[in-house]
Amino acid sequence: MENRRAEAALRDLERAWARTDTVFALLPPGALAARPIALRQPFIFYLGHLPAFAWNQVCRGVLGRPSFDPAFDELFERGIDPVETDSFRAAPTDAWPPAPRILSYRDRIRDAVRDACAELEGRAKSGTDVLVQQARILAVVLEHELMHHETLLYMIQQLPAAQKLRPPGLPPLERDGVAPPARPVAVPAGRVRIGADLDDLPFGWDNELGRLEVEVEGFAIDSTPVRNREFLEFVCSGGYERREHWRAEDWAWRERQRIAHPFMWRRSGRGWTQQTLFDEVPLEQVGDWPVYVSWAEAHAFARWRGARLPTEAEWHWAAYGSREGSLRAYPWGDEPPSARHGNFGLRHWSPVPVGRFPEGASVLGVLDLVGNGWEWTDTVFGPLPGFTPYIRTYPGYSVDFFDGRHYVLCGASWATDEALIRRSFRNWFQPHYPYVYAKFRCVGDRARGR
Prior knowledge:
This protein is of the alpha+beta class. The protein has helices spanning about 1-25, 45-60, 70-75, 100-125, 135-155, 230-235, 250-255, 295-305, 310-320, 395-400; strands at about 185, 190-195, 210-215, 220, 265-270, 270-275, 280, 375-380, 405-410, 425-430, 440, 445.
């Protein structure tokens, strides 16, 4: 059994490495030094970070092997998560090693991880190391790699057109067609569990494990996430200029950054456009795409509409609740995620109109809960009861962000791999971070409808 798990994990890693190479191939020569987002390192850091992470977790962290390049292991060990742009200064471009040397380091580490599988299998049979059992340490590396694909893609989206290469065979953008109207869906009261047990999952991060039982009162939730055309009403009504819609800290951020519309929108004499990975599209053609905004903007819109954002527990109950009161594995049931269920897995390379995948709806008919964009909740990211940072090779994965300044997101975006789509998975970002592919929907009191 352990042999098969390690072999399957390695196959998944090989596929992830191939996708990593595909993502970096979107950058022409010279673009590796670019840093399109001030809150992130330049691309060349991530070229070394992904293999360094694999080495530091598997070969050094679990197997205790001596390093062949300890300077690189340390240089590329961890990224950053600053609260404000001016709190971080990236290293000068010439401080990074040349790309060929980093690629040689990457290839050597990939070979080392391949060779490590036999030893990991042997330890799994003879020991009790939780990271070796069920090939969990390989899952740590795999899911870290997959999460960074999404980071790299929204960074690439911010590059000028001359600094990125459109891949062959890119699917055409799906512009407005026939999208279902938004409507409030009544969600009955129920009891929801957030979290999972370690043995219930092939792999789970430390913040997923634990048990939080929540009694959820009845409420109403939007059947679809907020669309571009709906958010445009907020913009045109002066929503960004009316302080009463914003928390004090969000208003100060909005004024400091001079924010007047969603980050992925552009305004010119010809009207509004929506930025995508490789194009800018007239907003009127993608009015039914979900709007991508920061938590602060989503929160302000909800206030403007006389509603609010869902809590993590409410979102889970609307997404996974069954008519019998139990929780389903996915909104649509127990079938693994597929192309019929939502816009994820890099199948479309962009958002699509909301409601495009009715087979992915929850039992109550709530659409787009998984795919087309992560969904903001009103819940501050924190540990679940029974939390333990069990991944000893990466103890700060979650703990470093239990600071009261990050909010939980649920679901998945178009750039999220299916391996990350599970009920217990928790994403999180700061409320003023506008780059992620994050949508939202509003909830309100069931009796009032809002």
